[in-house]
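Two proteins were folded this term; both appear here.
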Amino acid sequence: MKRPTLPSLRTGLVAAAMVVTLGACGAATATPDSSTATAASTSSASTSTSSTATTTNAGTTTTTAAAIADLLAANQASHWSAEDAEYAASEAVKVTLTGSTASVSGEGASLSGSTLTIDQAGTYVLSGTFTGNVVINVPKEDVILVLDDATITSNGTSAVEIQAADEVTVVLADGSTNTIADSASYSDEAEGAASAAIDSKADLSITGGGALTVTGNHNDAINSSDGLAIAGGTLTIKAADDGLRGQDYVSITGGTVTVDAGGDALKSDNDTDETRGYVHVADGTLTLTAGDDGISASTDALVSGGTTTINAQGDGVHADAQLAIGGGTTTIAQSNEGLESKLILIAGGTTSVTSSDDAVNVSDGSGSGGMGGGGGNATSGLMLTITGGKLVIDSQGDGLDSNGSIEMSGGTVVVSGPTNSGNGALDVNGTFEISGGTLIAAGASGMAEAPETDSAQGWVSATISSAYPAGTVVSIVDSSDKVVATYTADKAFSSVVFSSSAITNGETYTIYVGGSASGDTVGGLATSGSIEGATNIGTVTAGQHSGGQGGPGGR
């Protein structure tokens, strides 16, 4: 299937503008006999994805759900189904683990030394404590591995190694506490050998109503050479390198997942097939701590639901091809660059990004861009598209940075940008067209930029000769003395850009500092405010831009 690009999915954005300079300061359960165990803690992307509608300039209507669905349709479908976790308890083989031995009540599993081998399809319920490793070898067949208060610790190899199977589903029995860990060194470190505490050469799913702690002392905690699906359970993942790695894809549709990884927290790295190598977060509660990226995908990174918190030394979310957020709550509390990809779509959800460099970076990795803009240095095929949702940014580098262009037709974006003049709250090498939504971007004025003067929606930009400190309330007032925007800065700033449907191209607006904000706020942008006691620092006129060294605004 041909992969759709975000430009083909985005809504058309046409715009109008304004600016000036101011000269002032699942649970899974089993029942006896013929009853079945079903993983109930699952949710699909379609049920957790926002369905916000946007209208294109061609008059057609699309939805956030449709946009995410189109991107998912271009990728290999996840193998996971709730039916995968259903089993008849009476038919399950029970394995009791004791030290380096195991007793098996049934066929299909056998012990040799300290290795428990499962070589027949079926359901196996493991309980007890085991020092050794579990091997699953059932070519082209399925296994359900139920962990019911099981502790497995290996020495010199993976604790659970799936050498061959069609699919393996790990079910965490309701109320159970399970632990899996490997050793720091392996006896076989050849390329292609098992290298994770749970290492699978087949599609792997984890679900249920229990808890599982996996420690990858050697390398990764959980690795699948195919797809990895997390649909339920409470998972605590610790890894020397990557936490959850599905080489074809990682799909999260439920559960509570905590990852502390020396490398990437969630990772998919198949870079030989454009339909694979993706990460999709559809639901669940994720807390990701990473020495590198929080989420890393060789193709697409998609967020359509769930609650995700990321603390990363590298990128918060990185995708080599496309990154799309259509739902859920995503908080990137720490990152070098927050969101990074060639194509980025913000279509829904609530996203907060804190970054030591650029918060949203549209780049092909070539290093093009940098200072300036105005279209001359734009890289073709790169685009940031914003059609809905809430995006709040706190960046030390650029806030919204595109080495291509930006199109905004909806949503709310609040940028608390850099305080140094070598970066800007907005940095666009191509064009920035705005036709809808609400945008406020505050930061240093040295590289101040603004949207296109022919944008369909008006905007105002004020460049101030001296910076105002954090905590300053800025209000934008129209000619009838109505406050159209009130923003409380959380850092020093000398440039403010604002756009909403309340701004009319060609009209004059007055900028006040002081006063007060009231009502609900998004990142410091309030729904209402008062200029009582505030100071008038100047007026601005729609469609004019001066100040700063770069940018397409006003051209």
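Next, the second protein.
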Amino acid sequence: MRTSLLAFMLIAGLILPAQRPGRFGAAAPAPPGAGSDDDDSWDDDDEVGDRQSDDEDRDAEDEEKGDDEDGQARTGPRGVENRGESLGPKGGVQGRGGLEITRGPYLQLSTPASVTIRWRTSQPTSSRVQYGGSPDRLELQKTEMAASTEHEMQLTGLSPDTRYSYSIGTSSSVLAGGPDYAFRTAPPVGSNRAVRIWMIGDSGRSGEAQQRVRDAYDAYSGAASTDVWLLLGDNAYDTGTAPQYQAGFFQPYATRLRSTVVWPSRGNHDQTRAGPDNDYYDFFALPTAGEAGGTASGTEAYYSFDFANVHFVCLDAERLDGRMIEWLTADLAATDQDWVIAYWHHPPYSKGSHDSDGDGIMTQARRRFLPVLEAGGVDLVACGHSHAYERSFLLDGHYGSSASLSRSMILDRGDGRPDGSGPYRKPTFGRPAPHEGAVYVVVGSSSKLGGGRLDHPAHARSLNALGSLAVDVSGNRLEAAFVDDRGRVADRFAIVKGKDPVSSVDGRPGEADARRPGANTGGRTER
């Protein structure tokens, strides 16, 4: 009898169906409304526009590959804190009974009083975030008892510009936490303090190039923290599936994701599809109701947010329509922030792997976005798509082809470098002012190169180089540095608004020098 009962139990265990993850959103509260190199100097010989790198991958080739990646990471996430758990077979944090964190945690939608924390587990569980002033004093908590594999917890009632440590887990156990599980809430809107921004574009090709760019920025930054992290599209190749996002984004950036809020834009390779948890809009929690500042857009396709005295605007040129233009006009009219930065995927000016004279989406972005942005006082525009680095002069009114560029559209023909012809200067500080000029950058080489002619007449600097852009805003001064994959500053420019220098008066102690571009260059020579 005992033998028969055991046999029955074994058979039953084999034929029971595996429990499938629940549909995302059913259990989660919705958000409101560089390697080393002996040659450390940058040589202009590296600037050959038509040179094809070993890292080159053309978009056309990308699209032919289709969705055939297994999405498995080569290594587990860097710096995972082992809290009595072990690393699972896919690189996640594994707890008791085979429960595994398979994605995250990652931070979303930060405001001066709130932040959203997301993660995924291998089995449906309850959700709990414990948080407080230090890793050993997590005195506050939020719990959701409904079981889910997709966990999204919004913490509210937080103090502005304050560092919090946290852990994540179930209602009865901690799955992950430690010294690097921490976030800082956004400062009060309009506050004058130093802000560090990191921009990466076309970063979704996992591999050595991506890792070198990531590590070069970390070495460049040193002790300086990153306040705002922007993704300029094509965040996961080739088609933005869940496995591709896992391999191309969530795993290689796992350590930064648990401590830095990311604000993405969608690229042409971030394709959308029906069903739960399988595309860009499922992976990110983005503002739709103006909850992070700016004007409510009613959609995650385009949105705005504020951080300190900077207003950020995210657009989508592939879905450009009248409603987006109307919203953009209203949003810019409503902001009185000192600085305006806009970003999306398709650049208005490029002669890289894509030519803005012959690309319909890039042409429409130039003709329809730029008049509104420049009338609204935009200072900096960042895009990806072309797999190179390109940077303009201070421009205004150039909405046609490259051949239509006139001298009157270039407000300053200098190089913009503080150590060169000097920063670009705009007369007005304290509010957005129309048609005082903007700098346009293409940062589409954070994981791959594409070459091209790289000779657009609006551009002051064009490089077929891997890298990312570090931007520092302090008072009435913005400085940007393109950091290549060897940790060298390959380009630098600055914008100064108003006549008199204005310093950040409420920056965090000890960070003013650390945030200044080049203050932490690891001893590398800059040119």
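The first helix runs from residue 2 to 15. The chain has two domains: 86-108+113-184, 195-515. These notes refer to the second protein only.
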